[in-house]
Amino acid sequence: MTTHNQQDSIQKDNEQKTIDNPEPALAAAYVEQDDESTTSKKTKSKDINQVQDPAVFGKVAVVYGGSSNERSVSLDSGAAVLSALKNKGVDATHFDPKDQDITELRDYDRVFNVLHGRGGEDGILQGVLQWLGIPQTGSGVLASALGMDKVRTKQLWQGCGLATAPFSLLTANTDWQQVVNTLGLPLIIKPVHEGSSIGMTKVNNLDELPGAYTTAVQCGDAVMAERWITGREFTIVIIDDEAYPIIRLEPADISNFYDFEAKYNRNDTGYYIPCGLSVKDEEHLQALSLAAFRAVDAKGWGRVDAMQDEAGNFWLLEINTVPGMTSHSLVPMAAKAKGMDFESLCWHILAQTL
């Protein structure tokens, strides 16, 4: 039987274990890999790098296009991947689910998924391919579904003790003043299930909130407000469970955010590798991003976005399980910094399906 004194002692112990800012500890999500697991991953990576004959891939469907709001980006990404694979001698063909029956994928030996947004990045395509028994690039059903849902991703990270910017779900009946009271200003308003910064608006005052909500809700019924983090923005590419050199992003208008225009259409966005962090901070952010990546059960390749506030704290924003592969995209930039050209990058990602 527990006495009152013992209960007081247990309560004090629990209070001492409370982490006000859990991110530096990486909490439960970042678990050091044991020697056997690390050796296994290195062996697999070595095996991938030894793949020489394009015939081992068989007939490859490069799936891109689709019907999501990111179709235009997917068309650019997919065309670049298809060209790279063909240049490497791979028997690769464009497959567009908008124009073709998804069951026709039975005719292929494997899939390189470059289908951004809903239908291709949210677990739907992953589930179909898993059901058909067709090897595919990237993450499976669970990680894809979680990664496409910004709120559930953030809830998971919070549960793992990983710092992510505070947020609130919005509806048409939301008390806007209460949102401001809770999260402060500025805010960033986002559709929960969109990528490529589609439907996002920075809000600087209370009166702008209803309009920003209306813009976001046009992309789907789930909308969130997130505290604006003033500071530097970074993206961390992860391939084969390894964090690549970090990229710092700097939009021409530093008062704004890395929006669709900055990502795909403007040529004055700054991309910095080295990113400007100290060696210690870069290693720490890489470890944090790996923790976030593993927490959602992501596999193969992907990207984690994060901010560093003016006090030096890092905050996770979101994860991308089918990143862009356009001329402006970040995965090819990080790979180039590691000495890997675009064709080799596409080959390497495809080889992960073997």
Written account of the structure:
This protein has 354 residues and is α+β, with helices and mostly antiparallel strands. Helices cover 37% and strands 18% of the residues. The protein has twelve helices and 13 strands. It has helices at residues 4-17, 35-49, 71-87, 124-132, 141-148, 150-159, 176-183, 209-217, 260-265, 279-295, 330-337, 342-351, and strands spanning 59-63, 91-95, 110-113, 167-170, 187-191, 201-203, 223-227, 231-239, 242-243, 247-250, 270-272, 301-309, 314-320. Strands 8, 9, 10, 11, 12 and 13 form a six-stranded antiparallel beta sheet that branches. Helix 3 packs across helix 12 (342-351). The radius of gyration is 21 Å and the shape is globular. The termini are far apart. Residues 1-21 and 27-37 have low confidence and may be disordered.
How many strands appear in the DSSP assignment?
13
Uncertain runs: 1-21, 27-37
User: Can you tell me the overall shape?
Assistant: globular
Provide the structure class.
alpha+beta
β-strand amount: 15-25%
What is the distance, rounded to the nearest whole angstrom, between the alpha carbons of the first and last residues?
57 Å
SSE order: HHEHEEHHHEHEEHEEEEHEHEEHH
Question: What Rg do the Cα atoms give?
Answer: 21 Å
Question: What kind of sheet is the major sheet?
Answer: 6 strands, antiparallel
Number of helices: 12
Helix proportion: 25-40%
Rounded mean pLDDT is: 86
